[in-house]
Amino acid sequence: MADASIAPAAIAGMFDLLSPNPPGWGGNLLRGLANSLQIAVGAFGMGLLIGTVGAYGKLYGGPLVRDIAAIYTTIVRAVPELVLILLLYYAGTDMINRVLESLGYQRVDISGLVAGIVVLGFVQGAYATEVLRGAIKAIPQGEIEAARAYGMSPVLMMRRITLPAMLPHALPGLANLWLISTKDTALLAVVGFSELTLVTRQAAGTTKAYFLFFIAAGILYLAITLFSNVILAKVEQWARRGMPSVKEAR
């Protein structure tokens, strides 16, 4: 009888630990998840912006622009992301404050959220550059030549021809970058930002329920991935509207 009562008590204790209300840690985990998503969305958006500029610079820029873009993508992809995060987070914020002091301004405390977005966005930008560059090169050259023959300006050609035509080619790579950005937020735990991984570690260390909390964090990350896959599949279906499917192509 004693053994039979242990299991329900243990399960009840687990639910108490995961409760969103104190002394449960569920609310902390959800707030950490929200912080992780904010950083992931911001970093992915910043990476897309940098990647678009970088891809166009590599393909259509002058020699100096192409060299700068090549150095940027090579260094960022060569150095481990954790090292880049530590370098950019600490050295970057210190450099900004030194510049402000030299100009006569006071030092500023940079928000961890902003710093996280900038650091991960800078890393994402290098990979997005190569994804978008490959997608642009996959566009049939005849479409570009036709747009130029009609006298389209570079901006108009990008809006009406290049971006819509490259999107189906870029989406698989961009989808991977989005999922990577959701996981890379965990690296910010090393600089003390309160995202899901750091909160999970704090909860596990306080309660000693390591298995419970890290399994809970894994389930939350998995839920993000599954939900993202559904949304990305719909976006890809929309982007490929009018295009022949694989079966039709055969």
Short structural description:
With 250 residues, this protein is mainly α. The protein has helices spanning 2-17, 26-60, 63-78, 81-102, 112-137, 141-149, 154-184, 196-207, 210-239, 246-249.
Mean pLDDT score: 83
Q: What is the number of E strands?
A: 0
Which secondary-structure class do the elements indicate?
A: mainly alpha
Shape, principal axes of CA atoms: flat
Strand portion:
under 5%
Q: End-to-end span in angstroms?
A: 66 Å
- What assembly state would you assign to the polypeptide chains in this entry? single chain
Number of helices: 10
Helix share, percent = over 70%
- Most strands sheet: none
What does it look like?
The protein has helices at residues 2-17, 26-60, 63-78, 81-102, 112-137, 141-149, 154-184, 196-207, 210-239, 246-249. With 250 residues, the protein is mainly α. α3 crosses α5 and α4 (81-102) crosses α5. The relative contact order is 0.14.
